[in-house]
What does this fold into?
Amino acid sequence: MDRKITLGELAKMIRGNPVGDPRLCITGIAPVESAGAGDIVFAENPKILQMATRSHAGAVIAKHGESLQGKPGIFVENPRFAFAKVLGIFAPDVSHPPEGVHEESSVAESAVIGKGARIGPNVIIQAHVVLGEGIVLYPGVYVGEHTKIGDGTVIYPNAVIRERVSIGKHVVIHGGAVIGSDGFGFVAHDGVHHKVPQIGTVIIEDDVEIGANSCIDRATMGATVIGRGTKIDNLVQIGHNVRIGKHCIVVAQTGIGGSSEIGEGSVLAGQAGVSDHVRIGPASIVAGCTLVSTNLPPGAFVSGRPARPHKEQLKMEAAYRKLPDVVEKVRELEKRLSEIEDKA
It folds into this structure.
């Protein structure tokens, strides 16, 4: 849907201070390189700000105290956060399933569905499920027995929520995710791998987002827990009995081994690996492709395989790049030494 908002109105929406004509009409948001006269752009650093003030954009979102070189705009404390809010204002409308239960879905008689629920076609809701108010289930979602899902949660197509799982309020689960599949537990006996029954559950707290095709395994006993406000990217594997604290970020293709604990406010970058039974302290950062096999203290910043303090890892990488030259020098020294020995 096309939107037209004045600069003044937009400034009020994002709690910023308008600069220039508040009646200026803003019709969209765009990258600096392609912005037109009706677009607003955001500048989070001096380089982008310089590009933005010279661009064809109609207005610029910038940090308080910056110079817009005569360009209309909005001053804010945090341009990136304001940018996110403006994106939401201009975002296209998303079509949810209509309110009610689609006739092609299967809902057990004992299931409880809250007011305003929107359940699309080919959804399966098993016995004793409890769904909160305003929940949205897109086509093909499966919800297992005795599962509880809180108010306002949105689950996209073909996600699987297994039995006895608890999901909080305003959770977003993207397509193909599997919550509550069996933890990977086997015991060897007489040369055969025997399955260890996984009788625990998964608890997803409020305001969590889980990316497409991510998997969160149920606990062997007890619960796998994802803390409030945590955001999980696509293609993430979280093992049984893992506990992730509040407001963590877990980026794509990360794997977390069973019974590990991730402290509140931590960030695991893309393709990070965490071994089982590892504790990562609160507010830690694990760089991309890092392997964490030992416990980390609070506030750690690590990289490498195995994980080391990031500054130490950078020094090692710098030294590693010099190895070809070192090897060549060693060969020259060996050759000279050999020549000296031959003359002796």
Notes: Residues 317-343 form one domain. The helical segments are 7-13, 46-54, 79-90, 310-321, 323-343.
